[in-house]
Write a structure and sequence with these properties.
With about 240 residues, the protein is α/β, with parallel strands linked by helices. The chain has two domains: about 1-100 and about 220-240, 3-Layer(aba) Sandwich (Rossmann fold), CATH 3.40.50; about 110-220, Rossmann fold, CATH 3.40.50. It has helices spanning about 10-20, 50-60, 75-90, 115-125, 175-185, 205-210, 230-240; strands at about 1-5, 25-30, 45, 65-70, 95, 110, 130, 150-155, 165-170, 190-195, 215-220, 225-230. It has a six-stranded parallel beta sheet, sandwiched between helices. The protein has a six-stranded parallel beta sheet with strand order 6-11-10-7-8-9, with helices on both faces. α1 (about 10-20) packs across α7 and α2 crosses α3. Bound molecules: NADP nicotinamide-adenine-dinucleotide phosphate.
Length: about 240
């Protein structure tokens, strides 16, 4: 059995790519954060494993042959747990991580290492901010009383919110035209994003470039897996070669 740690489009594409391949059994794992997750094709399980010990026990009980960690680039805890658990059990592990975004001509990016650093920088850049870092990461901006925020997330935020803030519940992908219209309509002066990478949510960066807006880009946490690939086909080849 191959365990695919998921919660991303790449994980779903990998599960679909391997579905039905003779001799390959894939189980996709989701954290269970969203109430209406997009389920992958084939077998899946939902919920945390219970830290490294729980994941170790899970891998052992099912004689898992290989693990592909296809979780989001910012899901650092599960990725670190996978590194530790696979090393302990002796199971091959591959990290499938989409490449990060790179700034091009005309981009006004401000790379930072954390949401706290982004919050410290924002008052120098703008009064009206488009926050696209997800519903779980609003607290670092909650004290910025002099700024106005447009906060877009798939589900309602659960943490502390800034005093002046509009919530926009929406799931991408969004087109560049839609993003430009939104930025203009809300008179946005700066955007905050994580360096998630991928095409699905990149339109906001193109829109920011076209409007000349600064973008605060939160860098990825670093988790070192034994092997890493950037695209689904390479991960599928690794699985089919036996991990
Ligand atoms: P995280 O901080 O790395 O993980 C927190 C805990 O959630 C882990 O310790 C683990 O619990 C459980 N978990 C996470 N991913 C899991 C998975 N695929 N299967 C089973 N358990 C999982 O993760 P996160 O940032 O909260 O992200 C949660 C999920 O949402 C991930 O699957 C990720 O791919 C997806 N996602 C995250 C982001 C983001 O920006 N962080 C964006 C889009 C999608 P135990 O320790 O109990 O095993």
């Amino acid at each position: 059995m191959v365990l695919v740690l998921g919660g991303t489009a790449e994980a779903r594409v990998l599960a679909a790519r391997l579905d039905g391949v003779p001799g390959v059994r894939v189980v996709s794992s989701l954290a269970g954060r969203t109430s209406a997750p997009v389920l992958p094709v084939g077998e899946s399980r939902v919920g945390g494993f219970g830290g490294v010990p729980g994941l170790v026990a899970w891998l052992r009980a099912r004689s898992v042959a290989a693990v592909v960690d296809a979780t989001h680039p910012f899901a650092a805890r599960i990725s670190a747990n996978a590194v530790a658990a696979c090393a302990e059990v002796g199971v091959p592990l591959l990290r499938l991580q989409r490449p990060g975004w790179t700034a091009g001509p005309g981009d006004r990016w401000h790379p930072v290492d954390s949401a706290d650093e982004a919050a410290r920088l924002l008052p120098e850049l703008a009064r009206r901010v488009f926050l696209t870092t997800g519903r779980l990461e609003t607290a670092p901006y909650a004290h910025l009383d002099d700024l106005w925020f447009l906060l877009r997330s798939v589900e309602l935020p659960t943490g502390a919110l800034p005093r002046a803030c509009e919530l926009l519940l929406a799931r991408g992908p969004f087109t560049v035209e839609e993003e430009i219209a939104l930025l203009r309509d809300r008179r946005i002066e700066a955007i905050v994003t994580k360096d998630s990478g991928g095409a699905l949510t990149a339109a906001k960066l193109t829109a920011a470039r076209e409007l000349g807006l600064p973008v605060v880009v939160i860098r990825r946490p670093e988790v070192r897996a034994p092997g890493q690939v950037g695209d689904v086909e390479a991960a599928a080849r690794w699985v089919l070669a036996g991990g």
